[in-house]
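Why does residue order matter? Because the sequence determines the fold. Keep that principle in mind as you read this record.
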Amino acid sequence: MREKNFLRMLERAIENEWGANEFYQRLKKDAPDESCMNDIELAEEDEAKHYYMFQHLYYQLTDCYHSFDPEFVEYSNFEQGADTARRKTFEAIEMYREMLYIIPSPDAYQPFFIAMTDEMERANRLEKILVRL
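Structure:
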């Protein structure tokens, strides 16, 4: 049961990381300056890295990759998009922390530790962006 719960959460993490990568690709184009663009680009790269790490872990656990229909996250302007990103970043941190408690194998620890610390760094960058706007 614990592993089944972990797999459901891992599927959600994979979907979220894919959606976040696509979201940051769009948000980067709306950045008001180069500093914001660079911070958003780092987030975009991290999300792609997390997506591939999680898909690899899913494959290790199930012998297949997780397939899904991607969700499209809407935003009306850069500030609202950055605020949405900050909120979703905090949600990801909470989910990854929960997942660290129920990992089914030691191999699962590293990808979630990396993703969680990347998300915490991103939360700081997003706060910096929002304060400047």
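The two ends are 46 Å apart (CA to CA).
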